Amino acid sequence: MFPDIRATSTRIKLAAITGISAIALIAAGCSGDDSGSSTPSTNHDTTSTSASAATRTDFNSADVTFLEMMYPHHAQAVEMAKLVPTRSQNQQVVALAQAIEQAQAPEMQQITTLLVSFGEPAPSQDGHGGGHGSMPGMMMPEQMTALELASGPAFDKKWLDMMIEHHQGAVTMSNTELAEGVNPDARTLAQAIVAAQQTEIDQMRTMLTQL
């Protein structure tokens, strides 16, 4: 009887040791999985932080405000320009609309690049400045609806009147940037907007007299 008891005791000890080893291996495996899953998360957080960090400091709040407001302002001008081909038969209006779209769409990309380099969020068409009312020359939704419903000479006159007002607003915002901003790239953009859009304002006033 005693030999059987000792053998049984030995088997119990071996089973216990085997069980403990298995538990240790499982725990080690879980630990390895946790460390593996935490690494991508850490890398992701680092990437997100670095992407939003400013890469330059040569700007002030006036530069940021100018860019944040000019982006949706340009977006609306592009939207207005896209209405022309299907509503106007006036080739001067069609050509001007195409020129406005070709000039302002690349400037929107430039604005995005500048804001991101300042550590600011990429701009949106709604802007960050409290809506259309805070941006000079910005058309209200009902004005845009009325423009969309027009066609022919009536559309041409409405479009030219609205685009003149829109351009004047852009010139006003650009002059504010030139008076208060410090970033050289933002100021260069403002200068380009004033020069180009003032010329187009004069052109559109002449076109109105020919309708």
Question: What does it look like?
Answer:
- With 211 residues, the protein is an all-alpha fold.
- The chain folds into two domains: 1-53; 56-210, Ferritin (Up-down Bundle), CATH 1.20.1260.10.
- Helix content is 79%, strand content 0%.
- The protein contains six helices and no strands.
- The chain has helices at 2-52, 61-83, 91-117, 141-149, 152-180, 184-210.
- α2 packs antiparallel against α3 (91-117) and α5 (152-180) runs antiparallel to α6.
- Residues 1-51 and 128-132 have low confidence and may be disordered.
- It comes from Nocardia uniformis.
- Residues 63-208 form the DUF305 domain.
Can I get a quick summary?
With 211 residues, the chain is mainly alpha-helical. The chain has helices at residues 2-52, 61-83, 91-117, 141-149, 152-180, 184-210.
Sequence-ordered SSE layout with sheet pairings:
Layout (H helix, E strand, L loop, with lengths): L1 H51 L8 H23 L7 H27 L23 H9 L2 H29 L3 H27 L1
Helix pairs in contact: 2-3, 2-5, 3-6, 5-6
